[in-house]
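Problem: given the chain below (213 residues), write out its structure.
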Amino acid sequence: MLPPRPSTRRARLPLFLAVTLGLSVAVLAALPVQSQGPKDLVNKRFTANVVSVIDGDTVDVVIPPGRKERVRLHGMDAPESGEPFTTVARNFLRVLMFSRDVTVTGKDVDRYGRLVGRIVVDGQDASERTIAAGLACTFHQYAREPALDAAMARARSSRLGFWAQPGQLPSCVARETNRGPMPLLGVLHVHRTGRLPIYEGSDMYRKCIFLYM
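Solution.
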């Protein structure tokens, strides 16, 4: 009596598994290898070339021989997208460091996986220069440094950057000065003309005595 023939379905099962396993290996091999991230760069100082300026406080750099990382500038906060002076801040940073070799000191890794670092270009701290130009605020939640506070005080007193437009201040100003976003500080009671509003930074603010609301 002849032995029963194995079913065609069972005979094909090992072949199916082998093909599936092979395809899985091929797909995994084709996927890009994930980098270890920038954690190894924290507390390290290195030289890099700025290849892209994302916004007023974020750039892409290439570390020789070819490692690319996104760096969020430490100690400062530039206007967010859609806020006044967003484009001006980005252009300032672009002129300052695009396509330049810079020195980066890693400070931390933020929740977006970016390296938070201080960048020095031509021997000058980029965070301090941007704040001094009136195109970024300090960021006391993460850094409290007298040099950065002094830079913002100079920009504010000289009415540089967004400090020249008290009605168009970015949200970081309210956070760093512990005040609400409204720049209206008081009113001057003028004979016959009624109540005259006084805004911080205006000529009336600097020259007149006013009554706090």
